[in-house]
Amino acid sequence: MERTGEVPVSKKNKLTGEEALAAEFAAVDHAPLLDALGVQLSDEGLRLALTHRSFANEHGHLPNNERLEFLGDAVLGLSVAHKLYEVYPSRPESDISKMRASIVSRYGLADVARDIGLGEHILLGKGEIATDGRNKDSILADTTEALFGAIYLEHGFEPARGVILRLFQHKIDTATVTGFHTDWKTILQERCAELKAEMPVYSASVEGPQHDQTFTAFVTVAGHELGKGVGQNKKLAEQQAAQAAITVLKEKPQLVANTASAGA
User: Fold this and answer.
1) Are 95 and 180 in contact (CB under 8 A)?
2) Domain 17-174 is of which CATH architecture?
């Protein structure tokens, strides 16, 4: 999906903030995003949910999505907490609290945002666009919460809860295995240290247009390519590669053991 770009205007006909907002919002087809959410929103509600403060501040301090984010955070937290309470009746509060924190974390929300292709829809200021704001975990996470807030306001709690549980189903299902957000790169680094091996080295390539890129990452330890990962951004691809490498080292630690001391 490509943006048509800013609408060219002369100094005499410079757009007002509201006009700039309407033009930028109309420059992207939001139907795929609504399809991914599985619910319809009014243009007014969707536009506000997608308006980051950087865009709002650059155009005369328009309303931004932070109030919706606040509301969506509450709806998200209750929805996930209730589901975990039902699914894991024997787990103590300390466990399900950690599960919830992981699932609704910035990283969990950003993962969901990338799954539904949210980045291209966010209305950002020029500074954030220049620094790849559409791929920042914090912006993706906050905007996802704002969308939940907009859905709640227009449709009520149960429909909003339904959207949230569908989008987070995999994370809720796998919470029983991990219980918390797993940083595979850190785990791999620690495992290499235990084996007195060289530290992991990552390489990555990217394919596809700017709005629909696919990253492929490889991780190598002591000259052995141990894992490959594919994702919508470099971080996710490297995490997958690290997870694959850990699986290999469980079966064949001798591949890399003592390589650090040997090369010293």
Assistant:
1) no
2) Orthogonal Bundle (1.10)
**Domain topology for 184-255:** Double Stranded RNA Binding Domain (3.30.160)
Indicate which residue of 73, 137, 198, 238 is catalytic: 73
Report helix, strand and coil shares of the chain as percent, to nearest 5. 60, 10, 30
What is the residue-wise DSSP string for 209-229? Answer: -TTS-EEEEEEEETTEEEEEE
Q: Which of 24, 111, 137, 145 is catalytic?
A: 145
Q: Quote the pLDDT of residue 179.
A: 45
Q: Is 154 designated active site?
A: no
**Is 132 a catalytic site residue?**
no
Residue boundaries of the structural domains of the chain: 17-174, 184-255
Q: Say whether 69 counts as a known binding-site residue.
A: yes
pLDDT tens sequence across 158-191: 999 999 999 999 888 877 544 445 678 888 998 8
